[in-house]
Amino acid sequence: MYIKWYELATKAMGYEVIGKPAIKEFKDIIITGMGGSGIVGDVIYSLLYTRSRTPITVVKDFRMPGWVSKDSLVCVISYSGNTLETLSAALDAMNAGAEVCVVASGGKLLEFAISKGLTYVKVDQGLAPRAAFPLLLIATLKALEFYGINVHGNLERSLNVLKYTSEVDSVAKELAFFIFNSLPVILSSCRLYPIAMRFKNELNENSKIMAKVEVIPEWGHNDIVGWELPLDVIRAVVVYDGDPLMEFVARFLRDLKVPTYVFNLEGDDLLSKILYGVYVAGLASIYLAELRKVDPVVTRSIDRYKEFLNSRISINA
Ligand code: PA5
Mutate which of 43, 60, 79 to test ligand 1's pocket (most atoms within 8 Å of Cβ)? Predict the structure, then answer.
């Protein structure tokens, strides 16, 4: 699935947004979704952080914040369209009178969007949600553009980093070998946080291991002290795009003899760097799954959690 990302992304560039855009200025933007769908919100948050004059929030919860109103734009993302937290958040947003738009491949969410006349983008079915990342991201960017919110000027060019090459493959393998039999800690700057979080999620879901994320500069105000006597099982992956602060982090960890991998990002703008980082992280998690002899697709514990939720909560739109 990951090897086909560039082709999938190219196809997604042709997705159509269905709906009638609300002609108004929104007071705030919310992007909501869980796991492999929710990470799209983190990416967009990062891309808009210094540029947007409109506040933007990522929600990974059953509920919308109390301030959501008829002046909010709420973008709801669920690959399956059946994730309870996301369905519940969508209803909450509707009840607050917000403008709701939906990105899904099917399920109750898409049914809901169609029956309520909401704006939506339908993405291709048949992938693991996390492997549908380029589809979900492009569909969401298109939905935002539909409302006049241009997140990124040259999306098509940035997609080039999703081409599967022998270089990408060897970095992914190197990372997998580096992480094998360890508890990895992935450290990044704020703007590159989506890569670190996505890497963790991919290691959890595909490779079936635990992982930790730390974000700089906050790391320098608390977590840094915890490294003074590091456990043998810890290995550090430093997400690096030339930022001198991250050079300090790598040097600091190496001085403490912590095995440290500097994960050099390709790409000349923030979106390209994030796409590259997410792509390599995904492939690395698959190679690690192979090393650990586990099936990357099946996520039994998530199924168990979702079964519990379904037995307790029912969403009636
Ligand atoms: O990647 C995965 O399989 C999960 O993280 C899912 O994305 C998560 O459980 C939410 O499901 P969905 O993306 O279908 O809303």
Answer: 79
Q: pLDDT tens-digit profile of 25-50? A: 999 999 999 999 999 999 999 999 99
Q: Which of 1, 59, 76, 83 to mutate to test the pocket of ligand 1 (most atoms within 8 A of CB)?
A: 83
Give mean pLDDT, residues 180-196: 98
Give the Å distance between the CA of 208 and the centre of ligand 1: 15
| Residue with the two structure tokens 């509707």 | 94
Separation of 38 CA from ligand 1 center, angstroms? 8
Average pLDDT, the chain: 96
CA 118 to centroid of chain Cα atoms: 24
Q: Tokens representing 8? A: 């999938």
Q: Where do the domains of the chain lie, and which CATH numbers do they carry?
A: 5-151 (3.40.50.10490), 164-292 (3.40.50.10490)
Please give the structure tokens belonging to residue 12.
Answer: 């997604």
CB neighbours of 95 closer than 8 A, spacing ≥ 6?
Answer: none
